[in-house]
Amino acid sequence: MNGISTPEYLYVGGDPVMRTADTDWIKEISRVGFTQNYNATVTTGTEKGRALFSMDYYGNNGTVKGTYFNRITARINSDYKLFNDRVTIGENLFISKTRSSILEAGELQEGARNIQPLVPVYAIDGSWGGPSNNMSDRQNPVRLIEDNKQNHQDIVHLFGDIFVDIEILKNLVFRSKLGLDYTGYWKRNMQKSYSSGYLSDATAYLDTEANYGGNWIVSNTLNYKFDLSKHKFDVLAGQEMLKYSLENMSAGRDGFLLETADYMYLDAGESNFRNSGSGTSYALSSFFGKVNYNYADKYLVSFTLRRDGSSRFGKNNCWGTFPAFSLGWRISEEFFFEKLKENAISDLKLRYRWGKTGNQEIDNYASYGLYQAVYYTDPTWDRDYGTAYDIAGNGQGALSSGFIRTQRANENLKWEATTRHNAGIDFGLFNQKFIGSFDYFLKKTNDILVNPPYIATIGYGGSRFVNGASMENYGFEFMLSYNQRIGEVDFSVTGNIATYRNKITKLPEDVINSYPGNGNDQTILGRPLNSLFGYVTDGLFQTQAEVDAHVDQPGKGLGRIRYANLNGDDKISDEDRTWLGVEDPDFLYGLNLSASWKNFDLSMFWNGQVGSLAYNNLKGFTDFFGFFGGQNYGTRVLKGWRPDNTNTSVPAVSASDVNNEQRVSDYFVENTSFLKLANLEIGYRIPSRLLQAAHMQQARIFLSGQNLLTIKKSWGDNAFTGADPETPNLAYPVARSFTFGVNVSF
User: Fold this and answer.
1) Is 581 helix (H, G, I), strand (E, B) or coil?
2) Which of 77, 112, 134, 174 is surrounded by the most beta carbons within 10 Å?
3) Could you tell me which residue, 403 or 370, shows the higher pLDDT?
4) 388, 399 in Cβ contact below 8 A?
5) Helix, strand, or coil (residue 421)
6) CA 278 to chain centre
């Protein structure tokens, strides 16, 4: 450079090969996504049997470079009648093979958000750009994409059943079915050596993971249907057994002479041999019966009784009994309704349903006391919980390992049970031009399954699954659809609105700390499950006099957040926390519009919610400089308080969080009400006369768009500052996408 040296400040951290840049990292990792889908189906059939075979390919290259998902599926369904149609055998089988990248789009986008723009993609010498020593350890996302191109994960999924139906007597049918749902998974993670700023790894390594598992189901049912004049009966009794199992393993090695996908297999690794594996299983058994009764299509009654047993529960309560019934009255079929049909109400039905269901979705060994032989655990972030003295730090050795408790037993653990009442009305007006329904529900859940925190004096491994709180939910939904034809235009409008409320109705002492509240006088009992609890903010300190006049608040100062002293003492403490609102919306709504004219059609779907709140964790990145030091920040920090910029709600920029502004407070609570145009599609059906030469039955071309428009609250108090109120804690909104397609059938 003609003897003139480049100033040090033009290099990242003074590194002479890392010139500063203004990198748009989002642009560097983004691309236009591309999706394709192809399907072929073949069917055949006679009076004695039918068969269907189909294949489907779906490919999606995501909007973030390096991310993709490909799937090929095959399906075969058939049934055949034997022995004078008294026996029917058949199967419904589905198999799929998927391959996808191991990189997650969200993780890459988060990395692109965090790394600072002054870091270049490449250094002057062609090596990877990266952070300097005064920056956080954020990886170059372009390097991650490039160095993971060879990595992928595969899943093979087999799902389906084979069955036999035997008609023992007229209308008395026995069915036996064997169902399978198995998955095999394989992942290869090959990481090359690299240097990226002060981040580097001189040793290449390979990790592989594999697992296989699933369940088989055997069910046997006996079904009898018979009529007595206008009385129709449908009776069913059956039994079902399910067994689930899963085994997994992983292995890895470090140090490879060649860093290529063809060479880097486990047997070529030179050091740090590692492996692990585990397995799990559970079983479920059920007995059930059902009776349906129908009188003249006017009065409908159904009753069901189930007896379910699960290996996940304690030996004292592994079985649960779950009854249900429903009632229906089609009033419009009554004789006195004929005149109303002629005038306004063309259809009317009342219904009521009550039922009790069980939930067993917990760990497979939740009721057992568990002990594990643990030779060594990584003490990087916590102490070593191993039960042998691993003096060499190898995680293995000749010294025998002892056992450590990992979970306490609970032999009284039982089914979580939910009872639900549902009352509704279905109606049609003006010869079914208007069709609607109204539903009200009340749901009570008892003995909620939870693994609560435990006091430290119990010691390591003191966790235990218990039946904890009880909760009540109630709400309604109203739907109305209008269908009409005017001239050559057919159009339909369907709208719905729904609301729900819930509250905790029981809160045992040992699960209090699993829910918001202070565990003392302010518990969640009587409040909604999704209640927010924390500190109330009272603006920013504007003058030193305000700082001096406020109660003891460690870290207070000019431009810092002032917290309200709710209990009236002389300090800000945990006792000043209170309820900040509820995340649940006041109501949700949707609107579906469709119209067709000749061969053209148009449809759109709008949805939204009103009165919802969310705790926006992303404000830690957009509004504060010191929460996560040494990385990129949002532009809202530029609005931070300064002596010449006091008309702002954003705190002053600070390299440290001495005021503990990371604490849960209403500063992060925002309104997530929105109205969204979720889908818009325009289509054209090609006239049949143009398809005859190609031997096509029908063809339709269409153009659709998703997530086209979002209207949110962006003004006033608790305005939403994030990207998408429907997914409030994602840094980027759900991508707007467009699809052009052709549907053809032969």
Assistant:
1) strand
2) 112
3) 370
4) yes
5) strand
6) 25
